[in-house]
Structure formats: structure tokens, C-alpha cells
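User: N(4)-(Beta-N-acetylglucosaminyl)-L-asparaginase. Structure?
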Amino acid sequence: QVKKPVVISTWNHGIAANEAAWEVLAEGGSALDAVEAGVRVTEADPEVRTVGYGGRPDRDGYVTLDACIMDEQQQGGSVGALQHIMHPISVARKVKEDSPHVMLVGDGALDFALDQGFEKKNLLTDQSKKDWEQWKKDAEYKPEVNIENHDTIGLLALDSNGNLSGACTTSGMAWKMHGRIGDSPLIGSGLFVDNEVGAASGTGVGEEIIRVCGSHLVVENMRRGDSPEQACKNTVERIVANKDSLENIQVGFIAINKQGQVGGYSIQQGFNYAVHDETDNQLIDSKHLI
Ligand code: SD4
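Assistant: Predicted structure:
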């Protein structure tokens, strides 16, 4: 028995994003439209300091955004280090649909967005500017577990036709080097969708996710028979396998399979995800390795 529709997304802000995605799904809309609508809520919220508008800047004071989207036909679109655009996920979708490419970065991505009619905006809020000025006093790059760096939104949906799509969007690690791109816009790292099997998304220290192609690995684990939770756990174990110290490294994954089963797993305690199904929209504390 397939459970559908279902939406799963990362962290507390997933609740509000799920609501918006659910509105699309409840009317029989596509998973692709749902995932885009969902994460746009998070991108526009200045209180979410890790995604879109109001996100913390890089060490030079620039808010640079990473996002990708993937549909049920395994077509992806992505933007990296995009500045001045409120909804990078929608630009990523345009890259998928209206360009011959999968990924655009930096000024080229901005030019494309402006050509497509997106409006140029200042995304650096007063609060994020203040935080940056405070950070500059010591200028140390020390990501802390579950704090300020790890709240990328990844959102996966299974629609009433049984199709899967996913979206992932972030301002990346606060105080990153200018030009740094994380896992979130990389198809296979921050997000992967295979409509035959399932979908996955990652959050946390992007450098750790990239080196194992994390979301792709989660989906491949499901292909070999793992449950969504087990697939996430195995991927987390691959990440920690070569690490001397796990201090200050958080990585979490969420996953959904074709049956509408969902799960998540993280390295450290503190990761949670939101699941919306026919009965409820609830936050679940992820199981974790340590
Ligand atoms: C990154 N995975 O850029 C993202 C970080 C994250 O909120 O999850 N941020 O590495």
C-alpha cells in the first residue's frame, strides 16, 4: 500500500515549508510544483538565517545562495553562489527548463535570472550584517554543531500520482570563503531523486556530504533494499568512516521511497525533520550516531 501524498523536509522550518507544499499536493498538484512552493516559504523568511533572504553572508559580507531542484524524470537544475535573488530555487527550475544546462553559478547565474525576469534585491538584512560585523572581530571559521550553519532546507515530495521530486536551498555555511559552493546545489550531493526508487536530501557540513556524493548514496542504498532510515544511516557511517574526529561535524539526511515511507539519520543529536502526510504535519527528532 503506497502512502501518498507525503512531504518530508529538514529542520524546524520544514513545518511551514511542508504546509505550502501540501497545498499544492492536496489539490492533485505535482511533486515538482510542491517542492518549489514549499522551499520558497523558507527562502523568503528573514528569520531563517541559513536560507535565502536574511541568510548569513560569507566572510566578505556577500549573501551567496546555492539551490537545486530535481523532478520525476531525473532532470535537474541548479544555481551556485547566486547573489541578489530572493528565490534561487525558482532560478534553478528555470535553468532546468529554459536553459541547455544543469548548473549556472555566480554572475552568470545572476545574468540568467535577470534575463528571466527575476528582480534584483538586497538579501543582507540588518541582523545578518550585524552578525557579520561581530564575527569579523575574531574572524574565526569554526562551524558549531546545529548552530547557525546547518539549516539548509531540503524538501522531498511524493504526489498523488506516485511521482517524486525534491528541492534543496541554502545560504550555505556562514562565513564561508567567497566563492565556496557546498553540497546543496550539487545533484547527487545535496539532493537526488530517482523516480523508480526514492529521493534524498542532505544538510550539515557540505564538504563532508560532497565527498561521498551523499544523497545519491542514500538513494542507491534504498535501491539495494534499505529502508529510508537505514539508507541514511549507512550514508552517515560512510561519512564518519574516515574521520579522526567528529567534533563539530554535523551531517543529516532525509529520504523517502516510492511507497511513501520516510526516514532520516544524522551524525550528532539535534537534527530533526518535518513530515506531512494525510493525518499530520509533525516534527521528528532524527536518530543519530553519537
Ligand atoms: C552547506 N549543507 O552549504 C550546507 C549547509 C547547511 O545551512 O546545511 N546549511 O554546506
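The mean pLDDT is 95. Helices lie at 14-26, 31-44, 88-98, 106-115, 126-138, 206-210, 214-223, 228-240.
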